[in-house]
Specification:
Number of strands: 10
Largest sheet: 7 strands, parallel
Bound molecules: 2-amino-2-deoxy-6-O-phosphono-alpha-D-glucopyranose
Structural class: alpha/beta
Shape: globular
Helix content: 25-40%
Distance between the termini: 16 Å
Order of helices and strands: EHEHEEHEHEEHEHEHEH
Radius of gyration: 17 Å
Strand order of the largest sheet: 1-10-9-6-2-3-5
Length: about 260
């Protein structure tokens, strides 16, 4: 795992966008795994800016989103479909047929989940997966206790997640869906390259457990320790509980001069 710490959210988002751009420049038809939530919004804003001002090209890119609330139609302002179109897709030159987001309204979830996994495989697998993290250490909607080998399926959301996300539903816990369809931890670990972004004090404990704690299904993000190419992008507050913070800063400062591997 590589841990990189930036002075603030803006700087972190810009650095993360640079990594996405490097992947797209090397492979214009890359398959991206996308996350929602407030954390990646700055990264998406920066990608839109790079598209407009620097010609960053998405015409051959395929995307797979991590998750979606069960029961929300695509047009619902809090659905992840809506979020992705508003924050990213409608501002860039991605082909609509190359966008995949789990369906929150299918009448056969089991078949849909199988199809989604199959589609990822048919598209050649995910080249770069973008992740946020929940305050309880979840990635996508893989709540504590999720199997580290899990695949795309329906999950019942934890109370903490429902309470955290109520801020998007006029603060009303009763309006937050109880179920979500989500890629599994096993699905995520198959991505060739993974980046996780975290910002703010409320994520500091989950971040420390992810990076420095044991690998455990109680913190599903900790499974990333088993992956060979993960970068964790943090702002100062999200990094504030890390025990080895000085070491990560030391590595980051000395990286430009390091011998090439
Ligand atoms: C939801 C999403 C996760 C996201 C998390 C954190 O639970 N399913 O993918 O990482 O929220 O969201 P935020 O970035 O708003 O803190």
């Amino acid at each position: 795992m590589e841990v990189v710490i930036y002075p603030n959210y803006e700087a972190m988002s810009k650095a993360a966008a640079q990594m996405v751009a490097r992947v797209l420049n090397a492979k214009p038809n890359a398959v991206l795994g996308l996350a929602t939530g407030s954390t990646p919004e700055g990264l998406y804003r920066e990608l839109v800016r790079m598209h407009r001002e620097e010609g960053l090209d998405f015409s051959q890119v395929t995307t797979f989103n991590l998750d979606e609330y069960v029961g929300l139609p695509k047009s619902h302002p809090q659905s992840y479909h809506y979020f992705m179109h508003e924050k990213l897709f409608k501002h860039i030159n991605i082909a609509l047929q190359n966008i995949y987001i789990p369906s929150g309204t299918t009448d056969n979830y089991e078949a849909f989940c199988r199809w989604y996994e199959e589609r990822i495989r048919q598209c050649g697998g995910i080249d770069l997966q973008i992740l946020g993290i929940g305050a309880d250490g979840h990635i996508a909607f893989n709540e504590p206790g999720s199997s580290l080998g899990s695949r795309t399926r329906i999950k019942t959301l934890a109370r903490q997640t429902i309470e955290d996300n109520a801020r998007f539903f006029d603060g009303r816990v009763d309006l937050v869906p109880i179920y979500a369809i989500t890629m599994g931890v096993g699905t995520i670990l198959e991505a060739r390259k993974i980046m996780l972004l975290a910002s703010g004090k409320s994520k500091a404990k989950a971040v420390a457990a992810t990076i420095e704690g044991p690998v455990t299904s109680m913190i599903t993000a900790s499974a990333l320790q088993l992956h060979r190419d993960v970068t964790i992008f943090l702002d100062e507050e999200a990094a504030s509980d890390l025990k080895l913070i000085d070491y990560y800063r030391w590595i980051q400062a000395n990286k430009p001069g390091a011998p090439k591997t």
